[in-house]
UniProtKB/TrEMBL annotation:
This is Sulfotransferase. The lineage of its organism: Eukaryota, Amoebozoa, Discosea, Flabellinia, Vannellidae. One of its GO terms (molecular function) is sulfotransferase activity. It holds the Pfam family Sulfotransfer_2. It comes from the Eukaryota.
Amino acid sequence: NESLPSPYFFVHMAKTGGTTMMNLLKASTSYPVVSHFWYPPTEEVAKQTVRSLDLNQVNVIGGHMCWGTHRWWNEPPLKDYTYFTVLREPIDRVVSHYRYHLQPEDPNHWR
């Protein structure tokens, strides 16, 4: 029984191509990928969500999360893990983010 490699945590920063990255990960690996861990209402809800994942079944966890998510696994504690992210030129990113929030389809629309 081959074990999965240590988990990868993809920190998706808004408007940096994170959705494309998650789609590429899903298409290019035979291991399961958990897509988009969204901003939870509280840290406790975030911890419960993370702890509900079975790391024997999942290799990549990605979404809007902070570094340190790996610490929320208690049993057994994660000792081997990798974080990665995608960056974008800052001014282009801010302009893109602003224009995105002007769209009525955006759940955080603030026009």
